[in-house]
Design goal:
The protein is α/β, with parallel strands linked by helices. The protein contains 15 helices and 17 strands.
């Protein structure tokens, strides 16, 4: 099997959709000789920030000389981005070879009367399998959806992380903020410490789950915190403290932009401090050295094109657009803004637009590369209720050209869906060459 054949097989699995549950993934991993038990793991969930935190953790561990895997989703351009070892996506030939192995086992499962694994279950099994073959020491595993019945929830991690909990995927996670929080708290294991930046009702749910499972809980704002010292278009300097943990204040430089990354980085630091208690050799100095090198593409990413200022951000829910708007107001408070937007139709579009757009903003509307994309016409109609929609263009490349033409002297912000900004980001980088 070559890489194109592997991708064709994965795309074919989309017919099974999203089917939460652990029966299929458990059986598949047994047939692969339980690869997820051959190294230690950190499990990360949350509505927003889980990808950034996962990337920070993997970057810090790799910088400290610890052989580290990272499993995240979705990808921006290539499926190989989802499975990284020491900061590099696995090779296409390694990806294809692993898919060939897993495909054989999946077909045998079906012959034995099991349901066929979903696409995400196959990718999760592939990540666990590849990490075992690469002999990683630690793997940072990002949840795909929720927690309790997500296919990653077959691991018993060293530490569990719940970044935050807001109202998203309610149709699959119970319909209330309490049920969503309970689902994410489902990654908490007996006696395994938990770190969270959740607040309000979700935090109450997580406290209860941690107590019931005898898991020590560390809470942002109570047990640890970070303070913003300075910021600009090319990074920010912060100060971390955890007095109840006995950690003196220390400062660090973060290349990642966005006000939300202050909290995310604090969660990552607290996780590493707990690992250090378990004889994982990562010093404060090593973290300080690692943070400036951490990258997480398309998350409030500053990509200037000549003298044109551009921000690429995968904000795809109300909490994400909240963070985007606050970061724009903080870092680029006076620049006029033009947005290039495309949003999935199953998102809370009106709430996202209410939180993101100002009356004086201008918008070019396009469509994400997804069967779930909202139509350009519908999104334009919604935008016009809030500000000026200057162009409606379904084709991504043409929409980018139009946005760049209108954005001279203004800040161009590309957002709304990772299915949109992944391709746009790639086109921007090609134009910079």
């Amino acid at each position: 099997m070559d890489y194109e054949e592997a991708i064709s097989y994965l795309e074919g699995l989309k017919i099974f959709g999203v089917r939460l549950g652990l029966t299929r993934i458990t059986e598949l991993l047994i047939r692969l000789d339980v690869p997820q038990e051959k190294y230690r793991t950190i499990h990360v969930t949350g509505t927003n920030g889980k990808g950034s935190v996962s990337s920070m953790l993997a970057g810090i561990l790799s910088h400290a000389g610890i052989h580290t895997g990272l499993y995240s989703s979705p990808h921006l351009v290539s499926y190989t981005e989802r499975i990284q070892v020491d900061g590099k996506p696995i090779e296409e030939k390694e990806f294809a070879a692993g898919i060939a192995v897993i495909k054989r086992h999946a077909e045998c499962m079906v012959l034995d009367g099991f349901e066929c694994p979903t696409q995400f279950e196959v990718l999760t099994a592939l990540a666990f399998y590849c990490f075992a073959r690469c002999h990683v020491e630690y793997a940072v595993i990002e949840v795909g959806l929720g927690g309790t019945l997500d296919s990653t929830n077959v691991i018993t991690p060293t530490i569990s992380v719940i970044t935050n909990v807001t109202f998203e995927h309610a149709d699959r996670l119970g319909g209330t903020i309490e049920s969503i929080a309970e689902n994410k708290a489902g990654i908490i294991k007996e006696g395994v410490p938990v770190i969270t930046a959740a607040e309000g009702v979700p935090l109450h749910v997580i406290r209860r789950a941690a107590r019931d499972r005898h898991a020590k809980l560390f809470i942002y704002g109570e047990d640890f915190r970070t303070k913003l010292t300075s910021y600009g278009p090319y990074g920010q300097i912060l100060s971390f403290s955890a007095p109840s943990f006995g950690q003196a204040d220390f400062s660090y430089r973060l290349h990642l932009l966005g006000i939300h990354q202050a909290k995310n980085s604090a969660v990552a630091i607290m996780t590493i401090l707990l690992l250090s208690e378990r004889r994982v050799p990562v010093s404060v100095e090593s973290m300080q050295e690692a943070f400036p090198h951490v990258r997480w593409p398309a998350r409030f990413e500053h990509i200037p094109l000549g003298d044109q200022e551009i921000i690429v951000d995968g904000a795809h829910n109300p909490a994400g657009t909240d963070a985007l708007r606050m970061s724009l107001d903080m870092i680029f408070p006076t620049m006029p803004r033009i947005f290039l937007l495309g949003i999935l139709r199953d998102k809370d579009i009106d709430s996202m637009l209410d939180r993101l757009l100002r009356k004086e903003d201008e918008v070019v509307v396009t469509m994400p590369n997804s069967e779930r994309a909202d139509t350009a016409e519908d999104l334009a109609r919604r935008v016009r209720k809030r500000c000026t929609c200057i162009e409606v263009e379904k084709e991504e490349e043409k929409a980018l050209s139009l946005a760049l033409a209108h954005a001279r002297g203004k800040l161009l912000v590309m957002a709304g869906s990772l299915y949109l900004v992944g391709g746009l980001r790639q086109r921007l980088l090609e134009r910079r060459q």
